[in-house]
Records
---
Amino acid sequence: MRLFAAVATELSYTAAAETLGITRQTVAQRIAALESELGVRLVQRTPRGTRLTEVGKSYASRCAEIVRMADEANQSIAETGGPVRGALRITADPLFGEAFLADLVHDYQREYPAVDVELLLTERKVDLIEEGFDLAFRVGAMSDSALVATQLGPASMSYCASPSYLEARGRPRHPNDLAKHDCIALLPVQSASRWLFVVDGHPRWLAIHSRLRVNHLPTARRLAVADSGIVNLPTFAAKPLVEAGLLEVVLPEFQAPFGDVRLVYLGRALLAPRIKSFIDMSVERFRRDSLLPPPED
């Protein structure tokens, strides 16, 4: 599997042989033996070079993950009691990353200078196995049973506006009051503008008056700061601006939960020290700074 993963990465028997420190003939013989054992063709040789079959591509991703797990298990044992080192690949939603991760990653690398960090902020849900990432911050329901999750806390939405907007237009006391306000909606153009509230202990979708609709949450947040109206933001995204006095929370007693914030990773029995140390620091930091309320028992 290690040999085939090298061939899949290099798409060259010669380059794979150099990487593994063996002869090209040995690579060719072992690939042929592997194909014979599996009863499928994994590699096709053409005048233009080496390429993987569709079956080969699927098998290569699994081989690469098994090799990675084996290497990390060996590294975990070797590093027991020693310095935390290696490369750590993390992904998160851009808004979440903006709110949390710059300071966290900075402090982590200051404490563990032998760890190199790659941070990918994307709205796309990254496949940790296929794309070789160690950790992902996820907000909302957990759907991938192949991943293990450390819960950081429940998530909720906050309804916010700039202090100057609220001074001019008044502060709503009930969700029904939003009909008299300008609201910044984040919905498809064809959809009705509705926000979720907790009213009398029950979640309810209520219509809002939206003179402005955008499909980008950071832009909606900036518009709210610029006095354009009331916006519905994840609480973690609103908190820094609320603390800075740029936004004010309204209708806090009607805030609705929308799942949990989790740090997810592959279900490995033995985590590499760099992964475990980052998880531990993340949990400690979120609790210490009260960025999220603690999980309910």
---
Amino acid sequence: MSKLNDFGFGTQIRRGPFFDATVRWGAKDFSVYNHMYIPRDFGDPEQNFWNLINEAVLCDVAVERQVQIKGPDASKFVQMMTPRDLSKMQVGQCKYVILTNQFGGILNDPVMLKVSNDCYWFSLADSDILFWAQGLAVNSKFDVEITEPDVSPIQLQGPKSKDIMVKIFGEEILDIKYYWFKRFNLNGIDLLISRTGWSSEFGYELFLLNFDDGDALYETLMQSGKELGLHPGHTSTIRRIEGAMLSYHSDMDINTNPFELGLDKFIDLDKDFDFVGKDALLKIKEDGIKRKQVGILIHDKPMAGPNTHHWNINKDNQCIGKVTSAVYSPRLKLNIGLAIVDIDFSDIGSTFNVNIDNSWVDAEIVEKPFYDPNKCIAKNSYS
């Protein structure tokens, strides 16, 4: 990792409202996501993992930029953007949605929030959906306004996050159900708080509604929570791969379709609404997928860190796929990963070789997620 003052900061990349606070609290390195800086290093990533699963971490995820769809036709417009049926979505509810292009390729997999009957937010992974949405609207007859609002999420995740949030916001915070949100005001700071998060752990996301309050919010959360076990940190690659959580550009992109990833439950092709990519997805489903995402174990010494590029997979000297994400899990004491392989080689128990730095290593397909497969931890509160 480079030293902080060696990082190539520039004016073309945005700093979020929590940037200065994360530096004060120990951020040592950053990367770029959605044209913004995101802290990636607060020290040992394994310790960050243990902090997350045993206590709690505060993660600056302001890079999850919001796209707001607002107007009389907002509900019709967002339904046109996603294959998931939104007809029963209520104000105050969040939904994980897939956004597809005309070929059925995945453009993004945001969490969508219904802020009001005529206003929705997409909380984005790393791709320019603002431009896509505005482009879709140009030649349409939908009465909508598409903007990036002044909204910046930060997430507090881990088993102690509930106690920390109760201390700060009171018992009312416990009324928020999984994938729902409520509005709060903390010492003059306006927030929208949801029971979501990119961690596979129990937690909350706090959507800051005024950029200028970012520093005060971060400090308030850390100062209030540190005696209850809160640590400054970053999203954990180890935990997200344990939970088989997908990372855009790593595990999927515009050339990946939802069926290859096993995301069928978010694709409602039998409903009467239309959306971008419906014809393509109907054909893909009819023809059958040619490849499939799988979970793998890599039988080698513990990996020193996550993969930084895709690794080729061979079977009988034939390339059959690639490893998209891989890491050593200190809890499971295994090298675990996600891969996409030809459908003929995708059965549980199948074996093959992975090319890691020009060395071929044995691997096998196993069930995923690797830990807490029913997501009981993230869904349920702690007693």
---
Amino acid sequence: MSEHQIIDPSPDVTKITLLGKLKGFFLAGILVTAPISITVYVTWGFLNFLDSKITPLIPAAYNPNTYLPFSMPGLGLLIAVIFFISVGFITRNFLGRLLVRVSEYIVERLPVISTIYGAVKQIFETVMASQSDAFKEVVMFEYPRKGLWVMGFVTGQTKGEVQALTSSEVVNVFLPTTPNPTSGFLLFVPKKDLTFMKMGVEEGIKMIVSGGIITPPEPEPEDILKKKKLKKK
């Protein structure tokens, strides 16, 4: 072979380029289909779980699945929604409230069960009450040491003995873990050490669950927002 002969590298380059494109297409396909597939899978599994637990409780004469050639998906969810609406309607009248009070009177006198019931009831009343400020504000603060910042959610103003024993005004802050935001820590943080953020709770949860991969856009300055509002008017 002549020393001046040039070896054409184009086949290898073409092969590498083709593999790179295929890899890109593969990752793009996963990025598009994975969220949809997981959402459908989780939703379908949730509906099947409710159907398996609730549908068998319906008498055969009133069960639509008895007369249909196929099972009706979501029937359990529909019945659960109707059930909760019916209970809520009943408890709004005098007899319903009386029945609830009698039931609570009995439960509160049962050992162990009364403690569990009281704690669960208080949590639900705090989170679901429309007057509550629980989980309505996202905050940042330095934790576990100066220079390291974490994101948490305000669950209310600290009251009672905890506030009485502290020298400054403190706030209840729930510090969730990643990627499971249902677990975490309750911290009593001085209000002056909190940085209140403009992002919504939903955006904050997305950021925590994704481990910081999903980052909400930076909010626009106040002067720009005011100008946009004036233009809309």
---
Amino acid sequence: MDYYNVLGVDKSAKGDEIKKAYRKLAQKYHPDKNNGNKSAEQKFKEINEAYAVLSDQNKKSHYDRYGSDNFHKHFSQDDIFRNFNLNDILNQFGFRTGGFDGAASFRTMGGNPGAQPFGSFYTSHQQGGCAGGACAQPAKGPDLTYQISVSLNDVLHGAEREVTLRTNGRANNVSVKIPRGIEEGKRLRLKGKGGEAPPGGVRGDLYLKVHVEDDPSFTRQGDDLVYHKLIPFSDACLGTTIEISSIDGKTFKVNVPPGTDCESRLRIKGQGLPQGPIGDRGDLFVTIGVHVPASLSQEQSKIIQSLKDAGL
């Protein structure tokens, strides 16, 4: 699917032009104006998916750089609609929403051809009759939220974890994929893995809130990593070469130029963390600190005193 073609804009289109095109199409294909029209329903799904990507600078950047096919290999529907609140978007344009979760709705459309989930417009061939123009929804179990901890290596490479959940006294193992480039506080949604529902209902969803553990060697700053390296005062004055190991174990020789100040930053390009599931890596910055010994020998004291007398 070419998102630019879906919205009818050029690849050079800016944010306001994309928003204007989306609003025009959303008005045309909104369910209120196309009751029971399957073609319009599908078109409404497509334009919202396109806008979810092209209105998000990070997703749009990945889409523009890697193209549609590669983008969809690495971005799931959950990724596409993450942080995209369709209720809020449609409310901004004055549309009636019926209080529905846009991302969940479109995922459901993809997996259940018998359901057309448009909030209060929801109709399902798998359910009974409708009253007042809206069908009864099956009871849903509670959504559950757990915290999952990941390391910086998990952020770098991605990972697969097995999480043990206890519901009603029973232990259930759930497998979850940790995407590359995951950020602190992000939530991973596992549909139908939440709390149990009453008979005839559907299970709730499981949300795993991600906590990125502190690393003993590296500090994360966005997609960059920072490594703090102490060197002697003499090396800071005269210059030296130091060896640095990256987070994935590669060794780099870094030149420290003469006269390097404390807290100077030296860059090793492309040795940081990935910018999302398919993005390039950030950089590794080496922050230089000058080591000050806690005590000096008599000879060292004399040398330091002579440096002081010489104006250093």
